Give the backbone structure.
Amino acid sequence: MSRTPLLDELGVDALRLIAFSADRLSLGEGDILFRQGEEADTGFVVVSGAISLTRRGGSTHLAGPGALIGELALLCDTRRPATAEAAERSEVYRIARSLFGRLLNEYPAVTAKLRARLAARMAQNAADLRAIESTLRGR
């Protein structure tokens, strides 16, 4: 998990808490982890294999070992933006929002790192939206 974005800056103790407290799931090829539109209250870290994330309309992304799927669900109520299906035999850790909240409470440094990372991502998203708006206005 130390190579997983969002979790990669956590200390050993915090990662150990996740590893011991999260559920480890084994998936066969074609097994559905979740479907687009479902309520989400957990995130998943791909331990091995590959998970195909498909949105209605056909866009697909393949998430391999170390990928964090559903990170927004660790922080707030949301719905799944895509369907997740095992592209091959895979193992994932299921991290409940309550476990992630405990992590944030017990490790304040984690909270500060998360806040900085989310602020940077929001700034990048805002810049991307401004670029899209500029392109659309130019048409």
